[in-house]
Design goal:
Layout (H helix, E strand, L loop, with lengths): L9 E6 L3 H17 L6 E7 L3 H11 L3 E3 L3 H4 L6 E4 L6 H10 L3 E4 L7 H14 L3 E3 L7 H12 L5 E9 L16 H4 L3 H4 L1 H11 L3 E9 L4 E3 L7 E3 L5 E8 L4 E7 L8 E8 L2 E6 L5 E6 L10 E4 L30 H18 L7 H20 L3 E2 L6
Parallel strand pairs: 1-2, 1-4, 2-3, 4-5, 5-6, 7-12
Antiparallel strand pairs: 7-13, 8-11, 8-17, 9-10, 11-12, 13-14, 14-15, 15-16
Helix pairs in contact: 1-10, 4-5, 5-11
Length: about 400
């Protein structure tokens, strides 16, 4: 009996066995079947976490061959080619540097680091290593957003005048949630701004371009939370619950970005509108299988946003649940529906494409650095009450 494929899978080790481990593991297990590509395969070698029970649970759940607690058994194992990092933000730098020093490709959760200084070091070492490096800004890969990028690049909406974006959630409006690492400046760097705001910052760069300057305010609604180790006592929250920013882009466009995780009624609202001289594009994750498009050239009796339903015609969606019916349009059935897990599968399919081609991934560590530079400028602006230039390091 002949083997199904002679191609060797990419051997991967994962550091961190929390929530993101589920999405990363699911994506790596499913990617070969979704892409129908015998080269797009991952071999789940080892998962580690400071909590051994968590590592063991995820290993058993997703088929990791080994588990443990020492992250260096991943970064320094000669049989492992790829290091997947899903740990608290303050640990990213040390792990990434060790992984690159030991010849590994790296995919890292966002934000890349707790500040732009360490992110710059990480980006430099990533480039110097010659290895593939990627930051998991997973919404970039979403077909509706990839299609929005194509529409903008085609010139259909003309010169961009304004970007309006937000990522708003309400789960941290619960004051009984304990004081975990995301509420501490030393481990998180920023609160809602870094955790969810980093995604909308990345999308604004992806769709519009580099930032020139920012003006921002930051608010904290819940100042104390129960301690993890003793919930009868409380400790101080050190980060923002809501950040509101004005933006000037280098190309002359303006914008707004809002990031919040304690705003009642907003569950997971990733929203943007890109407004140009000839039309506009609008998207909300709450209606993630739709992209809205407005064309100023439409006659008055047709004027208004039209809803485009995702299907095989849109970048990446062809991997999923849209059968090709064989017609000349090759569009097939639309509106079958896609969700959060598919977004991660698309990210990992892009990552594996870069591994196979040995070409730079997108978004990479330089994109991660740019996001950290913007976060730092926003934090400084909020603290000083002034407009701040976004300083871009040369890499």
């Amino acid at each position: 009996m002949k083997p199904v494929t002679n191609k060797k899978p990419f051997k991967v080790g994962m550091i961190g066995a929390g929530f993101m481990a589920k999405l990363h593991s699911l994506s790596m297990n499913n990617i070969a079947g979704l892409t129908d590509d015998p080269e797009a395969r991952f071999d789940l070698m080892r998962i580690v976490d400071v909590n051994e029970a968590s590592a063991k649970k995820e290993a058993e759940r997703w088929g990791w061959k080994e588990f443990g607690t020492d992250w260096k058994t991943v970064t320094r194992d000669e049989s492992i080619e790829i290091v997947d990092i899903a740990t608290p933000n303050d640990s990213h730098c040390e792990i990434c540097l060790d992984a690159f020093a030991n010849g590994k490709h790296v995919i890292c959760e966002k934000p890349l680091s707790i500040d732009s200084k360490t992110a710059e070091l990480m980006a430099r070492k990533a480039v110097e290593s010659g290895k593939i490096h990627m930051v998991n800004f997973t919404y970039r890969a979403w077909p509706a957003i990839a299609q929005a990028k194509k529409i903008i690049e085609s010139g259909a909406i003309g010169q961009i005048r304004h970007f309006e974006g937000h990522f708003l959630q309400d789960h941290n409006n619960d004051p009984t949630i304990p004081l975990h690492w995301r509420f501490k400046k030393s481990s998180a760097g920023a609160g809602a701004l870094g955790d969810v705001g980093s995604h909308i910052i990345d999308l604004s760069r992806f769709l519009v371009g580099e930032f020139d300057s920012v003006s921002a305010t930051m608010q904290r609604f819940i100042n104390e939370r129960p301690l993890v180790e003793d919930r009868s006592r409380k400790g101080a929250v050190e980060v923002d619950d809501f950040t509101n920013s004005l933006i000037k882009f280098q190309n002359g466009a303006t914008g707004t970005i809002k990031a919040g995780w304690a705003l009642p009624g907003y569950k997971n609202d990733v929203f943007f509108a890109v407004i140009g001289e000839k039309g506009s594009i609008r998207f909300s994750w709450e209606r993630s299988n739709e992209l809205q498009y407005f064309d100023s050239s439409d006659p008055a009796y047709l004027s208004g946003y039209r809803s485009i339903l995702l299907g095989r015609a849109h970048p990446g969606a062809e991997l999923f649940w849209f059968p090709d019916l064989g017609g000349e349009s090759s569009v097939g059935v639309t509106a079958q529906g896609m969700g959060y897990g598919e977004a991660f599968a698309l990210t990992f399919s892009h990552f594996v494409d870069s591994l196979k081609s040995e070409k730079s991934a997108s978004p990479n560590f330089i994109d991660g650095l740019r996001c950290c530079e913007i976060i730092d400028a926003i934090k400084t602006s909020a603290a000083e009450g002034t407009w701040q230039q976004v300083h871009l390091a040369e890499i």
